[in-house]
Amino acid sequence: MKDRRRIVDEIEALIEPKDSWIKAAFYSDPKVTQIMEKLYQRWEEKGREGYPVDYATDDELRELYRAAKHYSKMPVWRAKALVEKRMEERG
Question: What is the pLDDT of residues 72-85, one digit of tens each?
Answer without folding.
Answer: 999 999 999 999 99
